[in-house]
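In response to reviewer comment 3 from the previous cycle, which asked for concrete evidence that the modeling workflow produces usable outputs, we include below a single protein chain processed end to end. The sequence was submitted unchanged, and the resulting structure tokens are shown without manual editing.
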Amino acid sequence: MSSRGNNRKNKSVPKVVTKRGRKKKKTEQSESEPDDPNDESYEPSEHEFGQGSSAVHGGGHDDEMGDASDEDHEINVTLFCGQKKAWTSTSYIQARRVNAYTLENDSPSPHFHTKVQHDAFFGHLLNKNVYEHRWIDWEFIDKYATINCLINKFRHIRLFEFVKHKCDWNDNIIRQFYATCEIDWKNEKIEWMTGTGRYNATIQEFAIANKLDYAHIWGSHDVWNENKLMETIWYEYYEAAIHGHPVKYGTVTGLKLVPAVANKIVRHTIFPKSGNPDAVRDHHWNFIHHILGGRTIDVLRFILKNIEDISCSVQQNLYYAPYIMSLIIVKTHFSAQNCDVKHKGYGPFRASPQLLNPPEQEGNPDAEGNNDANGPPNDAADPPSSLHLLLSFLILHGSNGDLLRLISLIISCLTSNKLFNKVCKLVWPPSPPTMFSSFTSPL
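The workflow returned the following structure tokens.
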């Protein structure tokens, strides 16, 4: 091969750049023409990005320009005038499973290394929703004694700072990341393109950018390869039916308050899921179980494995935008001022704060104030159950005590109707009669 040919080949591969010193490639773009939605496949032409473009069909990018600007810019998708690739699920997976940076640079655009990346962006990713993550408002959670125990639990497993980390993002920069991202697990490296620059970072740098303790988290418990939590285990996170709460296993209906809030935190940060918000799916149970049990989770591996899977899927929305953007801002020349999607805060049940307050105590303090809210309940002033007292009278004076005791037991197990108890209190003295003082409830 001639020296000219060697120079052409060497220049066709975008340079791997650090935060400074990157040279941009020349692009001159013209007005766009409408896409043809009826064409299912295409061969990009040298005019795809307009007259004078440096994109050469099948030949990569040979020209470099000494642009004084050092900033990466979002792709101007309005200038695209080619035909979009029509992907099937199978063809997309097959094309995307190959590490793009081991292939020739044949992209018709300087924003991508290969034509496959280019086609993935314009033919698929440009139409996908970027999930709106939330950062967790710990100050809101700290106001409620019923759920603020989660603060120490998240501190213990080193996720407190991560879930409250805030970073705005740019949707098309996130889409370009998904089009160009490759993860080298052996060397713990991430490689991608932002603007026309090609960048890489270590997994540790990804952790630091997102307030994650790499030394403590990386290599800890692997939820990604863990079997889904057994139903017999997550049943314990539901309220007992005898307390009068409706229960629908596999959903949030009947879920105890603390695991319900833990589930909401996970769904807005570590393991987001669009779709039915009432369902508690798959590995969400594993996260709830490990968080409440104080077990450190390798969220780094879990998030990056999810990103890798999403990159090869035509079905999933695009998750983890604030965490991807945190890395991009640190490692590239893209300005945070161009992040136009705001990362909003989240307080679980903020719209229904009554759900976070402890239930009101039944009964009133006696005249001397012995029923202290901070002390043990006053059994004399507030009997354990007015229903029990009513049944006790029937048991002592009925003709069939054994049968009545059985009825008492059944009703005690199946009933916790507060309204019924209040009705009983209206017709029963505040203190139990002397005749019942020696009676012991069947329960």
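The first strand starts at residue 16 and ends at 17. We consider this sufficient to address the reviewer's concern, and the full set will be provided in the supplementary archive.
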